[in-house]
Amino acid sequence: MASILKVDDLRGNTAAGNITITSEGGSATMQLQQGLAKVWVNFDGTGTIAERDSLNLSSLTDNNTGQYQINYSSSMSNANYSILGFSSAGTYLGRNSSLATGNVELLNRRNDNEASIDGSTIFFDAHGDLA
């Protein structure tokens, strides 16, 4: 019979936000808060840009053709975090500016000629420490 654990609040023993998970083999561990995305969004970047779903997103800004600014609800603690993004088929997504603690600007370009283009499906996430 499987066990079910239901809780409203989960806190680490050493520090409230520090929970360590041990691997199936028992030797490797991971700090849970370090492995979670701190920001993510799935949006349509064509016409009037529209968020489909997100976490920790305050707003999206359409700066120009294929240029989007992702604005975070809760800022990152510093600009040394990791981002990852994907866009519609036939295009690639890159960072258009330095990382800031409260936002990042992305640029969507065509694979064949590198022209900026709006993307119908944009996925973005950020990993790091929240402020």
Determine the number of helices (DSSP H or I, runs of at least 4 residues).
Answer: 0
Question: How would the global form be characterised?
Answer: elongated
The portion of residues forming beta strands comes to: 35-45%
Head-to-tail CA distance between termini? 41 Å
Give the strand order of the largest sheet, numbering strands 1, 2, ... along the chain: 4-3-10-7
- Biggest β-sheet, characterized? 4 strands, antiparallel
**Oligomerization state:** single chain
The unreliable regions are: none
The topology string of helices and strands comes to EEEEEEEEEE
- From the alpha-carbon coordinates, what is the Rg to the nearest angstrom? 18 Å
Which percent bin holds the helix content?
Answer: under 10%
Mean pLDDT: 89
Alpha-beta classification:
mainly beta
Q: State the total count of DSSP E strands.
A: 10
What can you tell me about this protein's structure?
The chain has strands at residues 20-22, 29-31, 39-44, 50-55, 57-64, 67-72, 82-86, 91-95, 103-110, 122-127. With 131 residues, the chain is an all-beta fold. The strands form 3 sheets. The protein has a 4-stranded antiparallel sheet with strand order 4-3-10-7, with no helix packed on it. Strands 5-6-9-8 form a 4-stranded antiparallel sheet, with no helix packed on it. It is elongated, with a radius of gyration of 18 Å.
